[in-house]
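Internal ticket - ligand job 352, nicotinamide-adenine-dinucleotide:
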Amino acid sequence: MEDYKRSLADKVVLITGGAGSIGSNLTHAIADLGARMVIVLDDLSAGYQWNIPALPNVLFVKGSITDETALKRVFAEKPDLVFHLAAFFANQNSVDYPERDLLVNGMGTLKVLEYCTMARPQRIIYASSGCSIYGSAAPLPLREEFISMHLTSPYQVTKMLGELYSNFFLHHHNLNIVKTRFFNSYGPGEVPGQYRNVIPNFIYWAMRGQPLPITATDDATRDFTYVKDIVDALLRASYFEAAIGKEMNIASGYETNIVQMATKINKLLNNTSGIRYAQHRVWDTKRRLLASIERAGELLGYRPQTDFDTGLQNTIQWFKAHWEEIEVSAEFPPGMSSATRPIELSTASAAV
Ligand SMILES: NC(=O)c1ccc[n+]([C@@H]2O[C@H](COP(=O)([O-])OP(=O)(O)OC[C@H]3O[C@@H](n4cnc5c(N)ncnc54)[C@H](O)[C@@H]3O)[C@@H](O)[C@H]2O)c1
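stdout (C-alpha cells):
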C-alpha cells in the first residue's frame, strides 16, 4: 500500500459534509484504510444518512457547521485531519437562496477554521470549486494562477471566500491548509435532485424514460471528474507536505461534450425519449470547462485513474443497486414537504 494511504491508519479524521456525494465516498475510503475514527459532521440538509457507510469506525454527528454545540462536539475528538466539504451546493441553489449560501459557505467555513486554530489538526483540506475561481474569460486549460473577480453566482463568490479565509488562516494562524478545486464530480453516491449535478439527474430521468433537458449550447463541454479520483486526490492532499498552502485543480483533464454525454446516457439506459432544449441559466457563462491538472500531478502525484465510460457505467450500476432509496430521496429531498416534487422541475440543473 502507498505511504499516503498507510498514513491514514489510526488517525482521527473529521469530514464536514460527510453524508454528501463526495464526502460519503471519502468517509468510506478513510474508514476502510483503518482510521481510528472518522467523524462525519453533517446536518443532512442535502445529504442522506443511508449514504454514510455504517462501519464501526465511523461516527455520525448530525449538526451544522454554523452551530457551536455541534462544532464543540466534533472538535472535542481532536481530529488529526479535517476535510471541510460541507457546503450549500451549488450555483442555482445560491441564486435562489443567497443568504443561506453565505451563512453556510461563508460563516460556516469561518467557524470551522476558527475551531481548527484551537484544535490544531495536522492538515485541513478545503473543498474549493473550479467554477468559482476562473470566471468565463480564462484561457483553457484553466490554470491555478488565472483567477477572476467576475463571478456569476453567490455560490462562486462564497466558495472563493472560503479560499480567501483559508489564506488568512494559513498566514495568520499557521494552519496547514490545502485548497483543492474540484471540477464537476460524478459517480456513485450522488443522489439526483433539483440542485444537483447534470450526470445524476440525466441518469435519473433516463431511467424514468424522460427526455434530457439541455440548458447549454451544442458545443458546451465540462471536465467531469470521477468521484473516486477526487477522493484519491484528497487523501494525497492530506499527506504530501508540498501541498500545504497551495491551491490545485482536481479534474480529469479531459473535456466531455454535454450533448454527447446525454446521448450516451440515453443509449446506455435504452431511453428513447431523446434530449430537449431548455432555458439557458443566466449565471452559466462558461461554455467550455477544461482544467490543467499539472500542478496536482507535481505536488500530489495525482493522476486520474477512471476513464469517462467506466465512470459512467459504475454510476449507472450504483443507481440500479440503490434505486429504491434514490427514488424516495429524489422525490422528497431533505427539507422539502411531500407536496413538492422538485426533481420533476424542468429547470433542474442540467450543467452545474
Ligand atoms: N460536486 C461537485 O461537482 C463539486 C464541484 C466543485 C466543488 N465542490 C465542493 O465539494 C464539496 C462537496 O460537494 P458535494 O458534491 O459532495 O456536495 P453535497 O451537497 O453532496 O454534500 C455537501 C454535504 O454538506 C452537508 N451540509 C450542507 N450544509 C451543512 C451545514 N450547515 N452543516 C453541516 N453539513 C452541511 C449536506 O447535507 C451534504 O451532505 C462542497 O464543498 C462543494 O462546494 C463540489
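Auto-summary: The pocket of nicotinamide-adenine-dinucleotide is lined by residues 16-17, 19-23, 41-47, 64-66, 85-89, 104, 108, 127, 129, 159, 182, 184-185, 197 (CB under 6 Å). The first strand starts at residue 12 and ends at 16.
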